[in-house]
Design brief:
Distance between the termini: 32 Å
Largest sheet: 8 strands, mixed
Number of helices: 27
Low-confidence stretches: 1-37, 146-150, 260-289, 399-403, 662-689
Structural class: alpha/beta
CATH architecture of the largest domain: Alpha-Beta Complex
CATH class of the largest domain: Alpha Beta
CATH topology of the largest domain: 2-enoyl-CoA Hydratase, Chain A, domain 1
Number of strands: 29
Helix content: 40-55%
Length: about 750
């Protein structure tokens, strides 16, 4: 029994409601966790923070430390009571070098009794260092172990050399910023460095420097080697420095448990609440990524840790740069903090786009532009460094960290060297310095000063990158602390606009990724609905699929819009005219099919890429590249739809769920033979001998959609067409008979 119109309407309404519910769940932002004002209790206080090795090595406890420091920025002073031993992984050192320079309050380190490895990194990031009588400090080389059997020893050594150069450059820059001797810090990390004072060798080659309290405060040329003094307690330190305010002693875990209930995603130290609010407002939930105009604005494009790994992010950044060129932006500042990523995608997408921009481009190294990040930086017109930042170390390795093989490594290295040198020359940077980022055999000497030694990969800290040699900076124009400072120094005019993915970006990416599935459901649903009586579930599925398809691609900034949706509807109507009104005329069906295919394909074409190529701007893609992806997706969708339709034709009519869609009339049911001729004798004959209807001719008793009934002489049979709609009264011939399934074609 076929469901009533009301029942089918309820089914359709339920489907729409379920879809709306899922969409609401996907698009509704979760409520923020409550956050009390724990930080306000530290204002004006002397905050003493006890630190051990787990506080720095464990990710969860390090987050609690970061929250504590964020809350203590308005304290009178922060004193780190250090007892850190044991080797630390590189990741720990990196996190410290990023977070410690952001602290605004005066900082002190009390080595009590040990500040080894990451503890030494934390100590040199403070303004002043004191020691307990038995205190020791040093041994800050990162712990890098080759635990992966697939990575060759040579590849591991390359990776270690790159990590070591980054750590050393940043640690030395941080030490200089805080007024400590950068050579002492270098000796903490690099066993090949010899530290001397006069004729005295403090740290010979082949060893990592570790200092006792007495050695650290020993004076050379009237200045202590590292520490300011030796004190017996925190109270003595506070008294010696004349610190004012109530003393509060805590640990990261104590602060987390007792003083603060931080939000699930606390704001990083590098991002102000104002910036977060602006970013949130820019990424409006239902906004399109091509809706806001870039005309005359100063664009700030953040590049973070994951951005140079995910292919979709490359596409987003390249699209933003093209859009800025189209709409004549005032300038682009890349706010860079990345440890690296896909070097080849960076060279192909970002360096090519940035090299041809008609507006000023600036990289703000804040604080990391390592590996692929340094390639992007040399592709911009100007580079600024945050204090204690670093840039470089862009050796090309395989995605797994393994060895590329000698011949392949040579080929890739030479291609990357050529690309980097060309772009650096175009942007006015020293091409030798840029090459040294990707070529460890490159020696760079400027005005008698060795900037990069052969055999080491170049990594520059802020001071080294901005050092003036032979009348010009080695690489960077200057040191800055904020984007606003750069805007003022460069004289850029216009409103600042942070370029971030919109709230619909993730939704749009999913729709783009699975467009072929939506095409399959849309086309198959439409075909099934045309061949079924009334309007039901297939029609609802088709409408939902095409609705999601066009809305998702519209939100993604593609050409999908009302125009193409109307084109799709017109095409479907013309196909309907061909089937129901003017069967056999061909022209309406062909024109309708062309309109449907064109609307679906063009809906997936990126609007910015299309306009960029249409206007013939520099760096524009070919029409084949722009339309090829859409054509491939559409082809997959149509092939899948045909397969789904054939499966439906084979199994749906015989299923209980699909039987209601078959048009039936009040004539004899079943593949039967009336008893008019032969009576019981004929029946007995049919039972003893299998009968086949192949070759019989007759006419359609009902419309075949694709199933229905036909009259073949005295026989009235349940039949199904071979994939086409056949109107009532059409001459037929049986071409296949398998059990109860009888397939017919027009004669």
């Amino acid at each position: 029994m076929r469901p009533s119109t009301a029942t089918r309407f309820r089914l359709g309404f339920a489907a729409v409601s379920i879809f709306a519910g899922f969409a609401g769940l996907a698009l509704t932002e979760p409520e923020s966790a409550e956050q009390n004002d724990g930080g306000s209790s530290l204002v004006g206080k002397v905050v003493v923070v006890r630190i051990d090795g787990e506080d720095l090595a464990d990710g969860r406890r390090f987050k609690h430390l970061r929250d504590l420091l964020n809350g203590a920025n308005q304290a009178s002073a922060i004193v780190f009571d250090l007892n850190v031993t044991g080797a630390s992984p590189w990741e720990t050192q990196r996190r410290l070098l990023e977070e410690i320079p952001q602290i605004q309050a005066p900082t002190y380190a009390y080595v009590n009794p040990s500040a080894l490895s990451s503890g030494a990194v934390l100590a040199i990031g403070t303004d002043t260092i004191y020691f307990a009588p038995a205190g020791v400090i040093g041994g800050a080389a990162p712990n890098l172990e080759n635990g992966d059997a697939e990575i060759s020893e040579e590849a591991f050594k390359r990776d270690y050399a790159q990590q070591l150069s980054v750590l050393e450059a940043r640690a030395r820059s941080l030490a200089k910023l805080k007024g400590h001797d950068p050579d002492v810090v270098k000796a903490f990390i690099d066993s090949d460095f010899e530290l001397k004072r006069g004729k005295k060798v403090i740290s010979p080659k082949g060893s990592i420097l570790t200092l006792t309290a007495d050695e650290a405060v020993e004076e050379y040329e009237g200045k202590p080697l590292l520490g300011k003094g030796i004190v017996g307690s925190i109270e003595e330190l506070i008294k010696a420095e004349g610190l004012k305010g109530e003393k509060i002693e805590t640990t990261p875990e104590t602060y987390f448990r007792d003083l603060s209930k931080p939000a699930r995603d606390s704001t990083p130290l590098t991002e102000s609440a104002t910036d977060a609010d602006e970013s949130e407002s820019d990424a409006a939930l239902f906004s399109r990524r091509d809706k806001v105009s870039y005309a005359g604005k100063i664009l700030v494009l953040p590049i973070r840790q994951e951005d140079l790994i995910i292919p979709a992010r490359f596409e987003f950044m390249e699209r933003a740069i093209k859009k800025a060129a189209l709409e004549k932006a005032s300038g682009l500042i890349i706010d860079m903090n990345t440890p690296g990523g896909a070097a080849w995608q960076t060279a192909e997408l970002m360096m090519k786009s940035l090299a041809e921009t008609p507006f000023p481009t600036i990289t703000f190294v804040n604080p990391n532009a390592v590996s692929a990040g340094s390639l992007i930086a040399v592709s911009t017109d100007t580079i600024y460094m945050y204090p204690a930042s670093n840039i470089g170390s862009a050796l090309v390795v395989s995605g797994t960290g393994g060895d590329l093989g000698e011949s392949m490594q040579q080929k890739v290295d030479q291609m990357m060297i050529s690309t980097v040198r060309n772009v650096a020359e175009l942007k006015g940077h020293n091409p030798d310095v840029a090459e040294a980022f990707v070529n460890k055999d490159k020696e760079v000497i400027i005005d008698g000063v060795t900037v990069s030694k052969a055999g080491t990969v170049l990594n520059l800290n802020a001071n080294e990158a901005t050092e003036v040699l032979d009348g010009r900076p080695v690489l960077a124009k200057g040191i800055a602390r904020t984007v606003e400072e750069i805007i003022e120094r460069e004289g850029l005019k216009g409103e600042r606009f942070d370029v971030e993915p919109t709230g619909m970006e993730a939704f749009a990416e999913w729709v783009q990724k699975f467009s072929f599935l939506l095409i399959i459901l849309g086309v198959a649903g439409a075909y099934t609905e045309i061949n079924a009586p009334g309007f039901g579930v297939p029609g609802v599925i088709s409408l939902l699929a095409f609705g999601l398809f066009f809305f998702g691609n519209y939100a993604a900034g593609n050409l999908a819009g009302y125009e193409l949706a109307v084109l799709l509807v017109i095409g479907l109507l013309l196909i309907g005219v061909e089937i129901f009104v003017l069967p056999g005329t061909v022209i309406p069906g062909v024109v309708g099919a062309v309109l449907v295919l064109t609307s679906i394909a063009m809906a997936m074409v990126d609007r910015v890429d299309f306009e960029y190529t249409w206007k013939g701007l520099p760096g524009a893609d070919s029409w084949g590249a722009i339309l090829g992806g859409a054509a491939t997706t559409m082809a997959l969708g149509l092939i899948g739809a045909v397969a789904l339709i054939l499966l439906a034709m084979r199994f749906l009519p015989e299923s209980r769920a699909g039987s209601w869609m078959i048009l039936k009339e009040s004539i004899a049911g079943g593949a039967s033979i009336p008893m008019e001729e032969g009576g019981e004798e004929g029946a007995a004959e049919s039972e003893s001998k299998p009968m086949t209807y192949v070759g019989l001719t007759g006419v359609a008793s009902t419309d075949l959609r694709p199933a229905g009934k036909g009259s073949f002489g005295v026989r009235h049979l349940d039949i199904i067409s071979d994939g086409e709609f056949i109107e009532k009264g059409t001459p037929l011939k049986v071409v296949k008979h398998e059990g109860s399934r009888i397939v017919v074609v027009r004669t």
